[in-house]
Amino acid sequence: MVILGALVNGIAAVVGGMLGMLLGTKLRQDMGDFLMVGMGLCVVLAGVQGMASGGSVLLVTLAITLGGAIGHLINLDGIIHHFGDRIQDRLQAFTEGNPAFANISAGFVNATLVVCIGSMAIVGSLQSGLTLNHSTLFAKSLMDMVINMLLATTMGAGVMLSGIVVFVYEALLSLGASGIAPYLTQAVITHMLATGSLLLFAVGLNLAKITDIKVANFLPACFLPIVLVPLLSTCGLM
After folding, report:
1. What is the Cα–Cα distance from 84 to 47, expressed in whole angstroms?
2. For 193-210, b where at least 16 C-beta lie within 10 A, e where not — what string?
3. What is the spatial distance between Cα 180 and Cα 214, in angstroms, rounded to a whole number?
4. Which of 38, 46, 126, 173 is deepest in the core (most CB within 10 A)?
5. What is the pLDDT at residue 223?
6. Contacts of 51 (CB under 8 A, 6+ apart)
7. For residue 118, what are the contacts with CB-CB under 8 A and spacing of at least 6?
8. What is the pLDDT of residues 195-221, one digit of tens each?
9. What distance in Å separates the CA atoms of residue 41 and residue 183, rounded to the nearest whole number?
């Protein structure tokens, strides 16, 4: 099944959020915050390893610049936050007096960024779609379950909603892989990986409370190598 990897990843993200909700009353706030900083450093490491796979600095810079401009103009970060706020408003009756449901938006946004951005989500989904090899997404599922468990202990129920988003996101990538196969040269995949890993690095810095970058606004940059690689190759810049 083409979407098996995405399905497992989505379920793992939801299960991690549920486990975090169960542990939330037993795990001290300072311990949860401290562990999240450590997990942020692990995400930074994953980003660094992804960037080490190679890629043109010029192309990644162009992708980040153009993708960031597009994301800023349409305010992707604001759209995601607005979506989370709407969910919180719809569930207002359940959130009143219940700290576990007090910040649906923050949990949803942070968890979604972590589980959706980066080389593992992109390359893993493409592997599932093109070769039915789900091993990368299975490994990512374990990592996302742990991250969501830690996120949910401090950010509540919104974290579980990321499981729905990551399933849809990765399933669409997997299903669409056969359609865009002619454009998926090794160079394209390498630069998608490098760009996504750079954004994953930024997410890790945010989780470690080092920065406060609106990473969502850079999401379009992940897919620009599909256009930029052939364009720069034609111009002799690669």
Report:
1. 26
2. bbbbbbbbbbbbbbbbee
3. 29
4. 126
5. 87
6. 194, 197, 198, 201
7. 46, 47, 50, 196, 197, 199, 200, 203
8. 888 988 988 898 788 998 888 899 899
9. 34
**Count of C-beta atoms within a 10 Å radius of residue 31:** 13
How far apart, in whole angstroms, are the C-alpha atoms of residue 6 and residue 12?
10
Residue 56 CA to residue 187 CA, distance in Å, equals 9
Query: How far is 238 from 233, CA to CA, in rounded Å?
Result: 5
Q: What is the distance between the alpha carbons of residues 60 and 63, in angstroms, rounded to a whole number?
A: 5
Half-sphere exposure of residue 173, counting CA atoms within 13 Å on the CB side?
27
User: Counting Cβ atoms within 10 Å, is residue 131 exposed (0-12), middle (13-18) or buried (19+)?
Assistant: exposed
**Residue pLDDT, tens place only, 23-79:** 766 666 677 678 778 878 888 888 888 888 788 999 999 999 999 999 999 998 888
Tell the burial category of 96 from Cβ atoms under 10 Å away from its Cβ (0-12, 13-18, 19+).
Answer: exposed
Task: State pLDDT tens for residues 63-113.
Answer: 999 999 999 999 988 887 787 677 667 766 665 656 555 567 777 877 887
The length of the chain is: 238
Answer whether 206's CB lies under 8 Å from 215's CB.
yes
Helix (H) or strand (E) holding 166: helix 162-177
Q: Which residue, 188, 217, 176, is CA-closest to 68?
A: 217
Give pTM, 2 decimals. Answer: 0.76
